[in-house]
Write a structure and sequence with these properties.
Helix content is 55%, strand content 16%. With 226 residues, it is α+β, with helices and mostly antiparallel strands.
């Protein structure tokens, strides 16, 4: 309590006020930069699962990291103490998109730069990386031509679904990924759900006819991705 009162009395000191104002500037700048980062995240978000809570998390983490770096300063003992304190935290939620993790680190990096007082570097880093991310988004770098669709295939229970359609997929598809396997028809059949992208010039009927020859003419469905 005495230390708290002494800090209040020392607030009139010019050095103390300068430190406080510098801390407020770091927090304010980290908040502004995190707003830019989250705006970029919303603009470049593609997957169906969008979470407002995740956007808020990026902003909060950026500001919190800036405060942590201000508290640590050059004190090694405090740094080790914070590492021990934060090591007990466990994050239970899994990321649906690996790019979400990159945006979390993006926000944390901006907060660290602000907390350490590298304001110009923080602004330059945020602007440059934001431009790079947006360029990758505009040119769809690494993407596959053609729209993604959902493919559902019903197969008999005694058919081993691993790699059973690989040759067909190699002929008709640019991309395929098995997302779900579930039982149907009271457990007598399996239903496989794929995310696919067809090759140019391939129709849904061509793909479905080829699969029906392999799955005993059971149900095959091609639809849009939710």
């Amino acid at each position: 309590m005495n230390q708290f009162m002494n800090e209040i009395r020392d607030f009139s000191d010019l050095t103390t006020r300068a430190v406080v104002l510098e801390g407020l500037a770091a927090i304010g700048l980290s908040f502004i930069l995190s707003l830019i980062i989250t705006f970029l995240y919303k603009k470049t978000h593609k997957s169906g699962r969008y979470s407002q809570s995740f956007v808020h998390t990026i902003i909060i983490m950026s500001v919190v990291v800036a405060i942590i770096m201000i508290v640590i300063g050059n004190n090694i003992a405090v740094a080790f103490g914070l590492v021990g304190a934060f090591s007990i935290i466990r994050f239970r939620s899994a990321m649906s998109d690996p790019k979400d993790i990159a945006f979390i680190f993006f926000g944390m990096a901006a907060g660290i730069s602000c907390g350490l007082g590298f304001y110009a570097l923080a602004v330059m880093f945020t602007i440059v990386l934001s431009i790079l991310i947006y360029v990758l988004f505009v040119f769809d770098y690494g993407g596959i031509k053609g729209s993604y669709k959902s493919l559902k295939i019903t197969i008999p229970e005694n058919m081993h679904y691993e790699n059973v359609f690989d040759d067909i997929f190699e002929e008709y598809l640019e991309y395929h990924q098995l997302n779900m396997v579930e039982t149907t028809n009271l457990g007598t059949m399996y239903q496989l759900t794929y995310l696919i992208a067809k090759k140019e010039g391939i129709s849904d009927k061509d793909l479905m006819d080829a699969i029906r020859e392999r799955n005993s003419n059971l149900k095959v469905a091609v639809g849009m991705v939710n």
